[in-house]
Write a structure and sequence with these properties.
This protein has 354 residues and is α/β, with parallel strands linked by helices. The chain has one domain: TIM Barrel (Alpha-Beta Barrel), CATH 3.20.20. Helices cover 48% and strands 13% of the residues. Strands 1-4-5-8-9-10-11 form a 7-stranded parallel sheet. Helix 14 links the parallel strand 10 and strand 11. Helix 2 packs antiparallel against helix 4, helix 10 runs parallel beside helix 11 and helix 14 packs parallel to helix 15. The longest helix has 25 residues. The protein is globular, with a radius of gyration of 19 Å. The two termini are 31 Å apart. It binds coproporphyrinogen III. Coproporphyrinogen III (CP3) binds next to strand 3.
Length: 354
């Protein structure tokens, strides 16, 4: 087995000392990179790129060639599970994801299969195996899934939504039906993440992009309880090492204590939350990931430098921090500004580690 040459990210998630704060960027492989756009054009559409193990591996590695990042993230999407359930995923140009067969009725939910991760989703596992081989132990590989709630929003709405009308109608009119859907998604996500670990993923992340649109009791019942089942159900140890899991609920700053109580290793924070407050609340229990506003990367280098300084000071000295953006990098960011950001985190953070 290839030894892992850089374990800063894994050490930070276990709240062990590191020499500098590890950093990776949400959506680090993507359209802001010209080399990504070239491979994407070669593949045809986005899902074709996800299904092609060598090309998915290539775009996963592109940001690591440009920048000294401390982790790689599998190039795929959270919507692979609903697609494998037969919903007919497509990405129309510039309009986001669309499902040809949205889930609206008890019959629709009952008909959904739990996908076999090495069957319909085998292309994802092939990508994981290819990336692990090509990484050659340079940095750990993060596997991921969407949270059941976030996947359900796309499946019921039929795509992206601003109002979440249909899924909220289901939540308040037919809660048992929504629970049946979330239950099936939870089983599917556990199988999917465990297969990613078996294929070589060394850490896991759950993206709950839309948990923040819920009331507190609805968040607990319809999102967090299912994420807790996933935390309890996934492989937490592989290749002689812990496999840490990070939960990210966008807009979930008010629920950090509840999220930490799931027994996860890390919490992803969006930029609206204070890193210092979050550390005081849950920093003894979990590692915090984040949380620079991705829009800071539109600024001049001096402003980026100052914002990195502010965030490092807010977290303060010691371990348990993974630097990241508070959400995905914007597609119109200048890659040089991203490079400056990463270099500044690494340069400035050394003073915070003994
Ligand atoms: O580098 C990485 O972070 C790994 C790859 C990754 C993608 N999507 C690639 C992608 C990851 C981790 C995701 C997660 C994802 N996908 C989330 C959760 C994280 C978040 O951003 O909140 C969500 C909500 C999705 C669903 C999704 N996929 C949407 C809404 C869209 C369209 C919006 C857009 O940016 O065009 C996608 C497509 C998508 N997923 C792209 C990429 C690089 C753009 C596709 C393209 O090249 O045209």
């Amino acid at each position: 087995m290839t030894p892992l040459l850089n374990d800063r990210y894994l050490r930070a998630l276990l709240r062990q000392p590191v020499d500098q704060t590890p950093i990776w960027m949400m959506r680090q492989a993507g359209r802001y990179l010209p080399e990504y756009r070239a491979v994407r054009a070669q593949a045809g559409d986005f899902m074709a790129l996800c299904r092609h193990a060598e090309l998915a591996c290539e775009v996963t590695l592109q940001p690591l060639r440009r920048y000294p990042l401390d982790a790689a993230i599998l190039f795929s999407d959270i919507l692979t599970i609903p697609d494998a359930m037969g919903l007919g995923l497509s990405f129309g140009s510039g309009e986001g994801p669309r499902f040809a067969n949205p889930v609206r009725s008890a019959r629709d939910v009952a008909a959904l299969p739990v996908p076999d991760p090495e069957g319909e989703l085998g292309y994802v596992m092939n990508a994981v195996r290819t990336i692990r081989r090509e990484l050659k132990g340079q940095v750990p590989l993060i596997g991921f899934s969407g949270s059941p709630w976030t996947l359900a929003t796309y499946m019921v709405e039929g795509g992206s939504s601003k109002t979440f009308t249909l899924i909220k109608q289901m939540l308040y009119r037919e809660p048992a039906l929504l629970h049946a859907l979330l239950d099936k998604l939870t089983d599917s996500v556990i199988l999917y993440l465990n297969a990613q670990v078996a294929a070589g993923a060394q850490a896991l992340m759950l993206f709950d992009t839309w948990g923040g649109v819920l009331s507190t009791p609805a968040y607990q019942t319809f999102s967090l309880d299912y994420m807790a089942r996933i935390v309890a159900g996934v492989t937490r140890h592989a290749e002689g090492r812990p496999v840490p899991i990070t939960l990210f609920t966008k807009g979930g700053g008010q629920w950090l204590e509840r999220m930490a109580a799931t027994g996860c290793d890390g919490l992803g924070l969006d930029w609206t939350q204070s890193l210092g407050d979050a550390r005081a609340r849950v920093g003894q229990q979990v590692t915090l990931q984040g949380n620079m506003d991705p829009s800071v990367l539109y600024a001049d280098p001096e402003t980026i430098t100052a914002e990195v300084a502010r965030l490092l000071a807010e977290f303060g000295p010691g371990c348990g921090h993974v630097f990241n953006l508070g959400h995905g990098i914007h597609q119109d960011v200048d890659p040089e500004r991203a490079g400056h950001f990463i270099a500044e985190v690494q340069r400035q953070s050394r003073a915070y580690h003994g």
